[in-house]
Structure of Cytidylate kinase:
Amino acid sequence: MTAIAIDGPAGAGKSTIARALARKLGYIYVDTGALYRSIGLYCTEAGVPLEDKAAVTAALEQIRVELRYVDGVQRVLLNGRDVSEEIRRPEISLAASSVSAMDTVRAFLFDLQRNMALEHDVVMDGRDIGTVVLPDAQVKIYLTASAEERTRRRMAEYEAKGLHADFEELLREVNLRDEQDKNRAVAPLRKAEDAVELDSTCMNAEEVLAAIETIVKERNA
């Protein structure tokens, strides 16, 4: 099996690019961030304090997360309920950052992620794919962009869905998420030593995809 790991900060375009790359290569796309978001959504809806590790850990016993593919599109099921759209809300993004810093949550989801790569050719994106989840991935990409550009992209996503978002507030959330992800004690966001860094600040999606395709071909040559 071949694994391609794409890591990077929030809003860098990892999911968009990973999904398109998987489709082009005929691989399975695994959006690991969606898994953590589903845990964050459950805790938010159930009133579980996100800062209370013991409470979040206890809540895991009530959670069943599944990935299903419908016409090649990944859907996320939380206790049998499709939450693929709900987990994209801004507040759930921050909730995901909080729970993903907990080793118990990461252990809870680890086998699901690793088994996908053992059974399929995958493109997997997240914060620690190349460093922790798939350290032996054949291709590792660290995709990044400026905080301002990542905020603009998030704004465009929300507006396309008819959602209102304030730029300054969203920028604050992006910077906060970066700070949380880089400084958490468990599996912090960092570039793997053998990853290729790609700054997409001045690139569109097509250019980023083409650049990564070139990297994949070079690494698999």
Notes: The longest strand covers residues 65-70. The beta strands are 3-7, 28-31, 65-70, 73-78, 81-82, 122-126, 139-144, 196-199.
